[in-house]
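Example (one chain per record):
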Amino acid sequence: MTAANLSASGRQPPRLMLSSPILTMNGIRKNFGDVQALRGVDVTVYPGEVLGIVGESGSGKSTLLRMMNLEDRPDNGEYRLALPGREDLNLFTLDRFERRMLRARHIGIVYQNPHLGLRMNHTSSGNVAERLLIAGERNFAVLRARAKGALDASEFPVARMDARPAELSGGMQQRVQLAKAIALEPALLLLDEPTTGLDVSVQALVLDTLKRLQRERRITIVIVSHDLGVIRTMADRVMVMRNGEAVEEGLADQIFQDPQHEYTQQLVHAKL
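Predicted structure:
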């Protein structure tokens, strides 16, 4: 497939546009007892692209996302983000406090389960402001204004910004998580099954919001999902995982139209 073909299809391969990756992971291995969760996985993500990671339950995709969010360390492997002054730093060597601060400033995440990302009995605006507080903001007026702006960008009704997430629908809870994740304009946005459990109509609205934000802000996104429809809607490039390994990787159009690996073929044909 030529660059001209790809341009005509509406998907530009990031490597033709951008020479330097924003995220690089090499040789990521992780065992849980006798279970090999990750078996030497390599990942490269370019600025402004959306990488979709797909696979069945137990494939290692969520474990890999936790590594990207610095929630866990691998048994082996390196992780680098193209952050000023830290380009050559293996982020897994940072201590717990350093990882927490880097995550607060540069990495946003939306969890499948909102309880993991939100304080359910705090206000929605307070949840967003908490991220700003961790990063050092102390002015109340600034906190509230920036929280309001992030909620509005996530298409959350700002008239309800003082409502608690416990009072909200699943779709609205995901929007609060998204607002919290983008409040500091992170270098990397991670999405862990962001539409699972939502009604189909609500899923479509959440995906529309994500696509708009990505288009307007050129946010770099890694999205993990078992739902190929979600991945096809969002991703520029796709990585297929099975049993802790990346078995195939390529442009989304290529993966869905001409899958090469037998397992990828099974996934795509089952969806069709």
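Caption: The domain at 46-67+94-271 is CATH 3.40.50.300 (Rossmann fold).
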